[in-house]
Amino acid sequence: MSLLTYKYYDTPEGQDIFKKTLVTTKYAILASLPVATFDVLLYSHPKGIFQTVMRYGFYLGPAISMATAFTLTTNIAQNVRGKNDEFNYFLGGAAAGAVYASVRRQPVIAVPAAIVLGACGIVKKIGIDNNFTFFPKLHSGKESINSVRRDWTFVKDIDELKNWEKGSN
How far apart, in whole angstroms, are the C-alpha atoms of residue 168 and residue 58? Predict the structure, then answer.
């Protein structure tokens, strides 16, 4: 299986930790890149390439570190404990919260961040175990807002009135 098509839950917990780390890192980059771009273009306006790269690193660094800490802690806890339960995800969320507090150099928020992100990990694990979809796929329709302009019929088709049969020619 290719690294580009690999999904986090393609293999059981505790296996393919490197691939799972790459997947969560990819998600962290995709989530924090728009925020960093917004900050660079509309808020901080850094002068020069070095300051721009540092500003992107200000957002990408903690996100990647937190994703890596979550993945490694969750999968290592699965291998050490031998159980696939919510506590592993709590430990992963707590590790991500501790990493966030240390990267931001704010030890005051270490315990609250660990508890909140650990609780988020528990909710995620319960959702995965019960086949709950957090972000469902959006199905787009065939018609758009301008489809009304292309409808040239006089009367709507009524399925009950379509009772004719094909002639025998």
Answer: 76
**Angle at CA of residue 101, ends 75 and 43, nearest 5°:** 115
Radius of gyration over every alpha carbon of the chain, rounded to an integer in angstroms: 25
Rounded to 5°, the CA angle 43-44-48 comes to: 135
What is the value of pTM for the model shown? 0.76
> Residue 117, SS3?
helix
9-18, 116-125, 144-153, 154-163: the lowest-pLDDT one: 144-153
**Burial class of residue 158 in the structure, from the number of CB atoms within 10 Å of its CB (0-12 exposed, 13-18 middle, 19+ buried):** exposed
DSSP string covering 10-79? GS-TTS-HHHHHHHHHHHHHHHHHHHHHHIIIIII---SHHHHHHHHHHHHHHHHHHHHHHHHHHHHHHH
- Average pLDDT for 10-36: 92
Find where tokens 């500003």 sit: 55
Q: Give residue 141's pLDDT.
A: 64
Amino acid identity at 8: Y
Identify the pLDDT of residue 98: 94
**Cβ–Cβ < 8 Å for 21, 71:** yes
